[in-house]
Amino acid sequence: MKKIALTMIFAGATLMAADGAALFAKCAGCHGQNGKTKALGKSAPIAGLPADTIMKDLEGYKAGTLNKHGMGGVMKGQAAALSADDMKALADYISKLGK
Predict the structure, then answer these.
(1) What is the pLDDT of residues 13-45, one digit of tens each?
(2) Which CATH number fits domain 19-96: 1.10.760.10, 2.40.128.20, 2.60.120.260, 3.40.50.300?
(3) Is the entire prediction scored with pTM above 0.85?
């Protein structure tokens, strides 16, 4: 019985883990399915950027302290609902795009 309970807890935690690919679907509208599109014709492509750079940028956008390419307001709205786990999952996913 203990084994079953532990298995169910682990499975639940896995299901609740942030999914970078699913989260990126919202980003793809501006950044493209592969992250290689200049968002609104302004920003540099994000595919393959280092995960720590993406994480730092997302944190800055969420805090309202970053305004790269004049996109701070738009990105603040996009990052507002992201948890730290969501941002990490996105950063990991985006860093692997195009590789």
Answers:
(1) 444 468 999 999 999 999 999 999 999 999 999
(2) 1.10.760.10
(3) no
